[in-house]
Each structure stands twice: as structure tokens, then as C-alpha cells.
Design a protein that fits this description.
Blueprint: H1 7-29, H2 32-42, H3 49-59, H4 65-79
């Protein structure tokens, strides 16, 4: 599947997949239990936790406007939470 995509098509495809993931995280974060779970992902001991918020911020520079909206919405939903820590 990827072999038929041009380099720019591959990047756009990845932005869309990441944008869909941002949408799912944002949708989960809209409920109290989902928000706690998403926040716990960013605070876990796994190395991937270090990439969740930076990846959302990176999506803000996407050429795919839907991905930008999904990332911005997710960041906004998490930022409104009293549970988000500003520390490491």
C-alpha cells in the first residue's frame, strides 16, 4: 500500500492517521474517566509517553486542516483539565 504513495502522499497519509488518533484521544478526554486515562498515558513509565504531547503539538503544523483541528481540540481538552501536571 505504501509503495504506491509518493513521498508527500505518505506524509499526508501519516498526518491523517495521526490526526485520527488525536481525534480518538480527544474524544476519550471529553469524559472524566477517559481524561484520566489519556493523562495517565502521558505520565506512564513507558518511553512512548514522552511522544504523546510533542506529537500532538507537531500535528499543529500539518498541511491537513482536519489533523490540525483534531490535535488542537485534544490539546485544549487536556489543558482544561485540573489533572494535568505542569512538571516533568
Amino acid at each position: 500500500m505504501f509503495s504506491s504513495l509518493s513521498a508527500s502522499g505518505f506524509i499526508l497519509y501519516n498526518y491523517r492517521v495521526a490526526g485520527n488518533a488525536a481525534y480518538i484521544l480527544g474524544t476519550l478526554a471529553e469524559s472524566e474517566s477517559g481524561r484520566r486515562r489519556v493523562i495517565s498515558l502521558t505520565e506512564s513509565r513507558h518511553d512512548e509517553r514522552k511522544r504523546i504531547l510533542p506529537d500532538l503539538v507537531y500535528l499543529l503544523s500539518s498541511s491537513d486542516s482536519e489533523s490540525v483541528m483534531n490535535a488542537a481540540g485534544t490539546i485544549g481538552t487536556l489543558a482544561e483539565s485540573d489533572e494535568v501536571s505542569c512538571g516533568n
